[in-house]
Write a structure and sequence with these properties.
The protein is mostly beta strands. It has one domain: Thrombin, subunit H (Beta Barrel). The strands form two sheets. It has a six-stranded antiparallel barrel. Strands 8-9 form a two-stranded antiparallel sheet. Strand 2 and strand 3 form a beta hairpin. The longest helix has 13 residues. The two termini are about 30 Å apart.
């Protein structure tokens, strides 16, 4: 089966940060598998239904931000753990700036390839030397 094309507006970086979320009256501690201005991939302890809106607390080098995200997908992998893609839906201007500055400050990390126009998700983690944009429109959808 061929995956649909990626529709991200921002690159993702392979960054593992501590994140907590509140779902079904439980607070859960986990970590990111990747992170970008528009969202993140997490490794939840349970399947999260697609379309669910979840509140997160994401730790960025000693500072916390508080995005609300929509679960874009949640999949069981071959080794019985779950990964979920989160699209940020609400993020304060201050938290957006903190996230942008955090991602811009990541030095020495591989820079992700710009969004692919093909449907091949296997290449989505490919590395490019192109640096991420330093400018972000805070009024644009994330």
């Amino acid at each position: 089966m061929i995956d649909p094309p990626l529709r991200r507006n921002h690159p993702r970086y392979p960054i593992h940060n501590i994140v907590t979320y509140h779902y079904q009256e439980r607070s859960v501690l986990t970590f990111t598998l990747d992170l970008g201005l528009g969202g993140m991939k997490i490794k939840p302890h349970q399947h999260l239904p697609e379309g669910a809106h979840v509140n997160f607390k994401l730790l960025l080098a000693g500072k916390s931000i508080w995005p609300t995200g929509r679960i874009a997908y949640s999949r069981f992998l071959h080794d019985q753990y779950v990964v979920s893609g989160v699209q940020f839906m609400e993020l304060s201007d201050e938290d957006h700036i903190s996230l942008r500055n955090y991602l811009s400050a990541v030095e020495g990390w591989p820079k992700p390839q710009r969004m692919l126009s093909t449907g091949n998700r296997e290449n989505a983690g490919a590395i490019s030397s192109e640096p991420p944009s330093q400018k972000s429109n805070l009024n644009a959808p994330h």
